[in-house]
Design goal:
14 helices, 2 domains, nine-stranded mixed sheet, alpha+beta, elongated, 9 strands
Amino acid sequence: MSNFNNGAIGEIGYGQEKSVEHNVELLISDGTDVTHFIELLGDMSDPRDNRGKRHELSFVLAVTTMAIMSGKNHVSEIHRYIRNKIKWLRKIFDRPNVEPISRAQLPRILDIVDWEELNAVIEEFFSVTVENINGEWIAIDGKVLRGTITDNDNAHENEQITIAIGHKSQQIFFQRKMSGAKSSEVTVVRKLLKETWLQRAKVTLDPLHANPTTLETINQSGGKYIVQIKKNQPTLFEMFGDMAQEEKAIGSTKTVENSRGRLEEREGRFFPLKDMEFDARWNQSDFQTLIAVDRTTEKIKKKEITKERSYYVSNVELEGHQPKTLTDVEEELFTAIREHWHVESNNYIRDTTFKEDYVKTKNKNQGQILSLLRTVAINTIRKTNPKNFKEAIDSLCDSQEVLTSVLLKFNFLRSWI
């Protein structure tokens, strides 16, 4: 069997950064009695009449995910992938008589999939708990599915998703769908927090979620939060601005980066809030720490310099209160603020590598189903610790052995070979 392509897919292990050439033989599952993704898909309800039904729903969803993992994003590309790989697919799925699905039928089947049921299957398959993420901070943010926009004049009615993604692992732990205006994200996130263990985790949030109800939910459940404060909360914004301008910070930290022709300096300053008085509606949010972040960016060639200041509030209490001494808590908060924007890296991969914004779908549910399957593809590839996401996809596309090995290792498929 062949090796991974120049280390594009690294040594397997949750949270590892090391990436080396790795024999495919080492990836084969050890035979442990586990539930496989294909089996969970098989338990889903299928609204189609059994008479004349030629393709199992589980097979269609699984091979569509495999096509996405191999860089096939548009429905026509997915259809051609299934057609061209049908002999191999018959073998690895132990379906000797299955025929390629037609181009016309593929989107129809995707249209009728129950989103809630598929999402539940995906959450069960990856089954991450707050106890086994080792205190990892999780970013919660929304994203527009631009491929579902059919009328630019009514773009606010397009489909959206909300995802919860680990800062370090960049695994997507939860996904929720949204329809309508951006403001619906607030309600969706509150429901997500209450329905899952996220309310007990460490989460970073954008300014849209700087409201008492959301922050109280996290704080009262024992979770930790960092949320940016902007002018949508004018009283807090003014109060924190005055504090950052007039008060002496009890700690600070600074980073300097030189990348892509830009020199960026970030300084975080920390202020305790325990003895501050806030409006009664914030009482259960338990504000403990203000972090003021000053960012100075210089475009080296153009000699252009920009400066901006942003404010973040957290219910994490500072340690020690000793000026000029950087504590582990301060370092953790500063790093979490920076890494919240790793969610944008995930969005970039979804849009540039998997063409999420460019795959046009006439049916909104089809767009949401394909988005869920992209999440399965991304999470599975992430587990291989790729050096380069595009190279990893190329490896999966170029070698049936490599793709099969990964699918078996991570219990996507059961071995029939």
